[in-house]
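Exercise 7.
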Amino acid sequence: MDKENKTLEVKKSNKRILSGKVKSNKADKTIVVAIVRQVAHPLYKKYYKRTKNVMAHDEGNECNIGDTVRVIESKPLSRRKRWALLQIVERAK
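Solution. The predicted structure, written as tokens, is:
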């Protein structure tokens, strides 16, 4: 294969990626992210919001409260941490 025709292959991951807002960053290297999703009521079909708080690993302690972030599934890092910070989408104002 020629060096000119080499392309980098990106691995497709089966890990879920979610986005949400940082609610807390008080613990060391840990953030709490609020994941908001809309669910339709089974009978009335009205949409309402459901919120789930997940703990995510933040290695550099770079997130602040109010930041919009993306988190990815990871191996269990502690009793409640199953997510890791992927990127900061938008900083809090």
